[in-house]
Design goal:
Blueprint: E1 10-11, H1 15-38, H2 40-46, E2 50-54, E3 62-64, E4 68-72, H3 73-77, H4 81-96, H5 108-126, H6 145-154, E5 184-185, H7 197-216, H8 225-235, H9 241-253, E6 256-258, E7 275-277, E8 280-288, H10 297-308, E9 313-321, E10 325-331, H11 337-340, H12 359-368, E11 372-377, E12 392-396, E13 408-411
Parallel strand pairs: 1-5, 2-4, 8-9, 8-11, 11-12, 12-13
Antiparallel strand pairs: 3-4, 6-7, 9-10
Length: about 425
């Protein structure tokens, strides 16, 4: 993050810049109308977004909050017709794919690259021209952002890749000053909606309704390939296990991410920060150490880590078990989970590996009384006959089965569309 001096002056857009904003708004709105001829389905959806031209240090290119698309007017003035369509399509896909509600606590740069790659693949399927420096990883073509993110962690290349726009925590940090004059340009028209987790989900559901309404009016075969994937997923939804995991925590932790409006006192630091609302969270995590679970453990731990980072404080009672409890410890720092999920053999080593019996785990949970118990397992093991009086989530590995008739169940999948 670029650090700025503490006494940087702040100015509003000049009269000339306001004129550029108005002129570019007219140009871009006409572009969208022209786009209707070649891509009516996409263009109609783009028209549902409010186009807002700004001159603001925090928006070097473009960004969206799910309702508005903010475009830097100076950047807009340099765009060709093809690039204008790419920008609007790119932001639209961020909205339709729910990218602004999926970051959680992930590394910001890697997440921005991952969602750009997912969006750009859809644009390629739609036949849109992309800039030569657009983020795209052929080895990850067709994968979702979460899968690409995990791949990027193992194949980092930040010195080569630059995300087109920004999403998630610290959404709009100044990338450059006003023509090198060390002045922060602040446009009152840049007023992204304060979106918490529930609102973000409502926006996504609203867009799903819009997509289906537009799809019903289209003739067969007239929806571009990338957009058709969106339509198909809405028509026949498949709840990703990551979404189910997020919902489980949100309903129990009370944690929310809240975006605040711009506060000038943070400008000197070059930051526009979201607020966090949450509480301390106590969970018990029981890991079945049988050999069949170890391949998928890193994927689950990485997702759990990202979710728990959003809580103010986490206390994790970590239990390694097979036929009995082999080891128990308390983890107070979410980052310590990374060693548990390591596939390189570094850090913490899981103990056990025999047959599985969850009854000792549940007896221990009665003493600890966590807010929830997560059991990572293939499902082949003995469980208590009676339902416990605390929430239980069974995280079942691929080809596993639910071990009990009670508790919530999510199934991990190792391949994604």
């Amino acid at each position: 993050m670029m650090k700025q001096p503490h006494s940087l002056p702040v100015r509003n857009p000049t009269v000339e810049e306001q004129a550029t904003k108005a002129q570019q708004h007219t140009v871009w709105r006409q572009e969208i109308r022209d786009w209707l001829l070649a891509y009516p389905f996409t263009a109609k959806l783009v028209m549902r977004l409010k186009l807002v031209m700004v001159v603001d240090t925090r928006v070097p290119t473009a960004c969206t909050d799910g309702v508005n698309v903010f475009v830097n007017a100076h950047f807009a003035d340099q765009c060709s017709s093809a690039l204008r369509r790419f920008v609007m399509g790119h932001e639209l896909y961020h909205v339709l794919l729910g990218h602004f509600m999926r970051q959680y606590g992930r590394d910001r740069l890697c997440w921005n690259l991952a969602v750009d790659a997912e969006a750009n693949y859809r644009l390629m399927l739609d036949g849109l021209s992309m800039p030569s420096d657009a983020v795209f990883y052929p080895a990850q073509a067709g994968r979702n952002a979460e899968t690409i993110y995990q791949w990027l962690l193992k194949h980092p290349r930040p010195e080569m890749d630059v995300p087109f726009d920004l999403h998630g925590d610290e959404l709009f940090a100044p990338a450059s000053m006003d023509g090198g004059n060390n002045v922060l340009v602040v446009d009152p028209d840049f007023a992204p909606l304060p979106v918490d987790t529930d609102t973000a989900r409502q926006i996504t559901e609203h867009w799903q309704e819009i997509v289906m309404q537009e799809a019903q009016q289209m003739s067969p075969g007239s929806i571009p390939a990338g957009m058709n994937l969106v339509v198909s997923n809405i028509a026949k939804p498949q709840v990703d296990w990551r979404t189910a995991l997020q919902d489980f925590f949100l309903h129990r932790s009370g944690n929310q991410l809240t975006w605040s409006r711009v506060n000038r006192r943070f400008f000197a630091q070059g930051l526009c920060l979201p607020g966090r609302q949450g509480k301390s969270l106590s969970i018990m995590l029981a890991i079945d150490t049988s050999g069949s679970t170890r391949r998928q453990l890193p994927v689950f731990i990485a997702e759990l880590q990202a979710l728990l980072t959003c809580a103010e404080h986490v206390e994790i009672h970590l239990i390694e078990c097979d036929a009995d409890i082999q080891r128990e410890r308390v983890v107070n720092h979410v980052q310590d989970l990374q060693d548990i999920g390591s596939v390189e053999g570094h850090g913490l080593t899981l103990r056990g590996g025999g047959g599985t019996d969850f009854r000792p785990v549940f007896e221990r949970a009665k003493d600890v009384m966590p807010e929830c118990l997560l059991c990572f397992t293939d499902g082949y093991g003995r469980t208590p006959e009676t339902t416990p009086n605390f929430p239980v989530l069974w995280v079942i590995t691929e080809n596993g089965k639910a071990p009990a008739s009670w508790g919530q169940v999510i199934h991990l999948e190792m391949t994604y569309n």
